[in-house]
């Protein structure tokens, strides 16, 4: 089975505006679909890729100037410094989970299969979905569901889960689904379950904090004229990227200097967010929720 079919591939590469001799970073290597095309556009340049999932590392590309680093992208600056790199010409982030991660039942990411309640992208990390579901208090679990799943009935869902886990540990995705599935009408079930899974996955992988840290490092490391290209798949990620580009910060309003100039380092390359066409979605369902933002470092 294919590891991952890259989303908005040409749009991302165009967005990077690649200089053949430049230094580029793909912080979400996965199956390497985007990396391969970046490499094709380099001549004398370098590409550093990151993926915290060791299963992605079998896709490493035997190309000159390419290096794949097995760590969380939140350590971008530190690991690039170890490679002697302080400035970069472009960074691509294709956030979230790969099709491969969804498709392997025992990784526990998908509502489609019964598997271990795991959801760790980095299988060495200590927090898995099992701990979140069975050990978090009702209040903490409700917060996770509300914050990361944007579920309005988060308290009721958390109560159901904690009551069930007090009777018998919930160790599989199937058990979790059985506990909550009747809380919504049949027609809304998949979306409801997907949001619960999304919330738990974001918590397990500390995704929002990691994204924030990486984005701030990226802005710092980009050369003037360097490009930031981010593909996100849910509103929380997209909001963070949008704020950084438009307001110069993750939270809060745009500030202006004494002369009325906006205080921010990035300028939008495309005013509106880029989404996939109907045809692209037909060819690759992963493109359905994708939102692409492109910005350039202006100073
Ligand atoms: C949507 S896939 C990327 C697919 C890739 N663009 C391709 O064409 O095959 C996201 C990948 O990023 C990795 N990932 C997600 N968050 C990460 C993080 N914080 N640090 C490092 N890797 C991460 C996941 O393990 C997954 O393999």
Write the layout of secondary structure elements.
Blueprint: H1 9-16, E1 23-26, H2 33-40, E2 46-50, E3 66-69, H3 76-82, E4 88-94, H4 99-103, H5 129-135, H6 138-149, H7 154-167, H8 173-180, H9 189-204, H10 207-221, E5 222-232, H11 235-247, E6 266-268, H12 278-283, E7 291-297
Parallel strand pairs: 1-2, 1-4, 2-3, 4-5
Antiparallel strand pairs: 5-7, 6-7
Helix pairs in contact: 1-2, 6-7, 6-9, 10-11
The structure holds S-adenosylmethionine.
How does this model look, in words?
The model has no long low-confidence stretch (mean pLDDT 96). This protein is an alpha/beta fold and 299 residues long. The protein has a 7-stranded mixed β-sheet with strand order 3-2-1-4-5-7-6, sandwiched between helices. Helix 2 links the parallel strand 1 and strand 2. It contains 12 helices and 7 strands. Helix 6 packs across helix 7 and helix 6 crosses helix 9. S-adenosylmethionine binds at residues 4, 6, 28, 30-34, 50-53, 56, 72-74, 94, 96, 98, 121, 210.
């Amino acid at each position: 089975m294919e590891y991952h079919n890259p989303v908005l591939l040409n749009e991302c590469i165009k967005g990077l505006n690649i200089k053949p001799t430049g230094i580029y970073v793909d912080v979400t290597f996965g199956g390497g679909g985007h990396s391969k095309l970046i490499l094709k556009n380099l001549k004398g340049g370098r590409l550093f890729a990151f993926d915290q999932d060791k299963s992605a590392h079998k896709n490493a590309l035997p190309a000159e100037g390419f290096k794949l680093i097995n760590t969380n992208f939140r350590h971008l600056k530190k690991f690039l410094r170890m490679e002697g790199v302080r400035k970069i010409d472009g960074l691509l982030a294709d956030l979230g989970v790969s099709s491969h991660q969804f498709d392997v039942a025992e990784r526990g990411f998908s509502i489609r299969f019964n598997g271990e309640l795991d959801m760790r992208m980095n299988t060495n990390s200590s927090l898995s979905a099992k701990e979140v579901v069975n050990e978090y208090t009702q209040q903490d679990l409700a917060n996770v569901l509300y914050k990361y799943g944007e579920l309005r009935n988060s308290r009721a869902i958390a109560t159901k889960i904690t009551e069930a886990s007090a009777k018998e540990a919930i160790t599989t995705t199937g058990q979790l689904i059985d506990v909550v599935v009747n809380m919504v009408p049949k027609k809304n079930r998949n979306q409801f379950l997907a949001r619960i899974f999304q919330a738990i996955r974001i918590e397990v992988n500390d995704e929002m904090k990691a994204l924030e840290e990486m984005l701030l490092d990226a802005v710092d490391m980009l050369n003037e004229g360097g490009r930031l290209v981010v593909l996100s798949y849910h509103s929380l990620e997209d909001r963070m990227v949008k704020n950084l580009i438009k307001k110069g910060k993750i939270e809060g309003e745009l500030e202006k200097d004494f002369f009325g100039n906006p205080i921010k380092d990035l300028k939008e390359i495309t005013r509106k967010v880029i989404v996939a066409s109907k045809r692209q979605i037909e060819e690759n369902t992963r493109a359905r929720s994708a939102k692409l933002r492109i910005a350039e470092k202006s100073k």
